Amino acid sequence: MQVRFRDMSRLLPRGPSRRALLALGLAGFALPATAQRSGLLTLRATFGERGAEIAQDLVWRIYSVRGTDAQLVQQSVEARPNFALAPGEYAVHASHGLATAIRTVTVTEIGTAAVIPINAGALVVTGHIGGPERPMPPARQALRLFIPTANNSEGRLVTSVLRPGSVLRLPEGTYHLVSSYTGTNSVVRSDVKVETGKVTEAAVNHRAATMTLKLVRNVGGVALAGTQWTIETPGGDIVAEAVGAFPNVDIAEGAYTVTARHNDREYKGQMKVEGGVNRDFEIIVD
Question: From residue 159, how far is each of 107, 169, 203, 277 by CA, in Å?
Fold first, then answer.
């Protein structure tokens, strides 16, 4: 099949009637609506009013505000984002970890640039046992962070999943840190201060040790198998139990009463634990 294309202008009569037809043709089409104008909002964040620029770990959210209603319209995780927005009022929400800031900005057609100060610092927590030369295995350090309230140092929980050695970004302020040496009764509580633009490094020292329990017939003798062990505080609270000839028990510094049960008989001893000093503890069969 052959297709031929012709010049459509030759089909129109010449003279005024041609202009009239063109006018009618234009009148039959609706003109497109004028595109809505927009302005560019450029943002960056700083540590406080006079601190350095925050170059990472930022989340930006832009809300349109009408009366008491706020609707999320755009967001970004870039350090210096650019948002194309219709002119008007917007709420800018910037977060750096758990620290946040909110500012209202006016976007114009010629563009708007804004600097959002965030009063944010950071906290890094590590632990050791008895001294810096004995780092605590990270898997055995459980951390909780609180915001103190009136008459309560553990007023409001901030996080219970803080990992040793990791960086937690926080609003400036004073926090209450609780570090537990898991598998033991060793718990250390301390207050830490986070300052804007700074990293607070907290090293927690757990005064604890590993004690090897032995029930023997004479000093330095062979440990008796099948022994059941109970370790209690002077107040009678049980802090550890074990079974075996020479079980290892991690325990906080202090004085304890140790009970060994073997062949339906009980044997008691007084054990003193010094932080960072691992040793054997023997109870001699009478």
Answer: 37, 12, 18, 32
